[in-house]
Automatic annotation (TrEMBL):
Keywords: Oxidoreductase. This is SDR family NAD(P)-dependent oxidoreductase. Transmembrane segments: none annotated. Belongs to the short-chain dehydrogenases/reductases (SDR) family. InterPro entries: NAD(P)-bd_dom_sf, Sc_DH/Rdtase_CS, SDR_fam. Its EC number is 1.1.1.-. GO terms for molecular function: oxidoreductase activity. It holds the Pfam family adh_short_C2. It is an enzyme of class 1 (oxidoreductase).
Length: 250
């Protein structure tokens, strides 16, 4: 259990970020949900009543340094420490590569890659002062295997994987771990419906991943995998290992 530990999750108003927040809360941690959506405050309040630790919600924009700094300062004021961070905020424009506009690319990379960079930089500086910390970034299966239409998104997520490795090496001797979890086909409010229905048959396990299953991996990597750093853990039902076709009927 994680009593007296503090976990901060970005992009936590819904989907994967919310699921990871619930998992940390169920493990007894104090949990800070952050999101650019003001609804994150109410989401956190509803979870607070169900958790043994304290759960709060903060409005934070991962693309703005001042917003990140203010959120981290508030966490330290209230809790006096920060043990785990899940950098999950992201999104992107999905189009065939040559149809991507400069704006599409800049928007996707600015949110996913640059936003994660800004968060990591601020978090690592905080961890250096307190002498410990664990970061888990949200990657993507697209870093290893992807259908078409993910050019800008995959560029950003591959960059996150590279930053994870670089920061892990830079601060491995400072009691700071930096890892990445790359989800596969996960059912969330953002990709429910036709996309899930179309992609599920391509997964060797023949089903999608639940947010609850994925959240357990994030918590494990953040808290239990104490000799792991610089790694990307793929949780994809076997997709990156290969495609499984049905055997022909005799």
């Amino acid at each position: 259990m994680l009593e007296n530990k503090v976990a901060l999750i970005t992009g936590a108003a819904q989907g994967i970020g919310y699921g990871v927040s619930v998992a940390f809360a169920n493990a007894g941690a104090n949990v800070v949900l952050t999101d650019y959506q003001p609804s994150v405050v109410e989401v956190a309040q509803s979870l607070n009543g169900q958790a043994s630790g304290t759960v709060i919600g903060l409005v934070m924009d991962v693309t703005k340094d001042d917003s990140i700094d203010a959120a981290l300062a508030q966490v330290m004021t209230q809790f006096g420490r920060l043990d785990y961070v899940i950098n999950n905020a992201g999104g992107g424009v999905l189009k065939p590569f040559a149809e991507l506009t400069n704006e599409d690319f800049d928007k996707t990379v600015g949110l996913d890659l640059v936003g994660t960079f800004k968060c990591m930089r601020a978090e690592i500086n905080l961890f250096l002062k307190q002498g410990f910390g664990s970061i888990v970034n949200t990657g993507a299966l697209g870093s290893f295997y992807a259908p078409g239409g993910f050019g800008a998104y995959n560029a950003a997520k591959n960059g996150i994987m590279g930053m994870t490795q670089a920061a892990a090496v830079d601060y491995a001797d400072h009691n700071i771990r930096v890892n990445c979890v790359a989800p596969g086909l996960t059912k969330t409010p953002l990709n429910d419906g036709a996309f899930i229905d179309t992609m599920t048959p391509t997964v060797p396990m023949k089903r999608y991943e639940t947010v609850e299953e994925l959240a357990k991996v994030f918590v494990f990597v953040a808290t239990e995998a104490t000799f792991m750093t610089g790694q990307t853990v793929v949780v994809d039902g076997g997709v990156s290992a290969g495609l499984k076709q049905e055997a022909p009927h005799a």
